[in-house]
Design a protein that fits this description.
single chain; 32% helix; two-stranded antiparallel sheet; 3-stranded antiparallel β-sheet; 7 strands; 184 residues; disordered N terminus; alpha+beta
């Protein structure tokens, strides 16, 4: 067996080396049957910056930190590529203490609303529950760019209904679609 983390959503060793085929081929059972999730970080102009694939039954939050670690944006002048965005806009699925703590440690602004059950748990704990999560609601309105980028990817029939048997081939098609998005 290959070394790598094996969690409830399958073999995640492909986030370290995207060219390595995971044991489950990034195919997992979800409500609609067998599926694969595409995780990507995009800039403000809907251009993908980092791409990962995982099995369909896995959650979004466990893939957030590996996706953020893949982020590399070349500078126009000389120097190391940027790996730290100014802000991260994400939906409630990414609202967890671990994600918020990592973003705070890296000095990245988190524009992520709190889940309703987390709000209720915090209120139930009273003073020990801590302060409510604050985020800029006007900035959060721009989060639709991620959904629009997914819609652009899903225009490719091969990506919308995964025909590829291997995850590396499927990820390659997603990367090709990302390259074409950058060329527009």
């Amino acid at each position: 067996m290959r070394p790598g983390f094996r969690g409830p959503q399958g073999d995640l060793s492909n986030h370290k080396n995207p060219g390595v085929e995971p044991a489950d081929h990034a195919i997992g059972r979800s409500r609609g049957g067998l599926s694969t999730k595409i995780h990507h970080a995009v800039d403000g102009r809907r251009r993908p910056l980092a791409i990962l694939v995982s099995p369909g039954q896995g959650g979004d939050a466990p893939m957030f930190l590996p996706l953020l670690s893949q982020l590399r944006v070349l500078r126009s002048e000389r120097g190391r590529p940027r790996t730290r965005p100014v802000a991260v806009l994400a939906d409630r699925a990414y609202s967890s203490r671990a994600i918020r703590a990592d973003l705070r440690r890296r000095q990245i602004q988190a524009v992520i609303p709190e889940k309703r059950d987390q709000q209720a748990h915090r209120k139930r704990r009273g003073r020990a529950g801590g302060r409510p999560v604050s985020y800029d609601k006007d900035t959060y309105k721009r989060r639709h760019t991620v959904e629009c980028a997914f819609n652009t990817l899903k225009e490719w029939r091969a990506l919308a209904t995964r025909y590829d048997r291997h995850a590396v081939i499927f990820r390659g098609a997603v990367v090709l679609a990302a390259i074409l998005a950058w060329l527009r």
